[in-house]
Design brief:
The protein is α+β, with helices and mostly antiparallel strands. The protein has two domains: 107 residues, no CATH class; 79 residues, no CATH class. Helices cover 42% and strands 17% of the residues. It is built from six helices and eight strands. Strands 1, 2, 4 and 8 form a four-stranded antiparallel sheet that branches. The longest helix is centred in the C-terminal third of the chain and has 28 residues. The chain is elongated.
């Protein structure tokens, strides 16, 4: 049965940890909420999917853009031409010291910004997409979280793995982690296949994602 509310999610995780009678469980609600939040953080560190990918919607100032607060990793970045190649900050600085001209080819993460080489004019719109963290699950956000709606088992097993040290569930943590990683890897694999089919990824060792 699909989980349609944050309360249902808490009850489901409580049952899996403490048995069927979740209502009379001695586990504090705040503890369940904490393990859900810890599971979410792991998910967004590791997941690259259509459900947590969004358009950049940013413009360049002084050859840089400030990364959005929900940024996790770059998916694809370009200025209307070929996709930019992710490189190190040091490489960008060395390149720009040579004052190259022409189409921008490279980008790098520098602190909370992206920088480019050759340099890009102010006001130029960065195109493409990045992977983001979604708003933390709660009573308001869960019903509109498309990633949760499509993959609620991912969130359940992520929370269960995080709960294991709290409740001395050493015997089950291996199984829970296997379930979590299997679901995560399947989602990431499907995302990579979609990227290949749409021509976004080149068939060579990938440096496509930087975080």
């Amino acid at each position: 049965m699909s989980i349609l509310s944050y309360n249902d999610l808490q009850l489901q995780i409580t049952r899996l940890i403490d048995g069927e009678d979740a209502v009379s469980s001695s586990i504090a609600v705040e503890t369940i909420q904490q393990v859900i939040a810890l599971g979410e953080r792991r998910i967004y560190r590791e997941l690259r999917s259509q459900w947590n990918e969004k358009a950049w919607g940013l413009t360049v100032t002084s050859n840089a853009i400030t990364l959005p607060n929900d940024f996790i990793a770059s998916s694809v970045a370009h200025f209307g031409e070929k996709p930019l190649e992710p490189v190190s900050e040091e490489f960008i600085l060395e390149q720009n010291n040579l004052q190259p001209s022409g189409e921008c080819k490279y980008f790098a993460k520098a602190g909370n910004t992206l920088i480019f080489s050759p340099k890009v004019a102010d006001g130029t719109a960065l195109q493409g997409r990045y992977f983001c963290s979604l708003p933390a699950l709660d009573a308001i956000t869960l019903p509109t979280n498309a990633l949760f709606a499509a993959n609620e088992d991912l969130f359940i097993y992520a929370a269960l793995v995080e709960s294991a040290p709290f409740f001395e569930q050493d015997a089950r943590i291996v199984l829970w982690n296997q379930k979590y990683t299997s679901i995560r890897d399947a989602i990431n694999t499907n995302s990579n296949r979609a990227a290949y089919s749409s021509g976004r990824m080149m068939r060579r060792p990938s440096t496509r994602l930087i975080s």
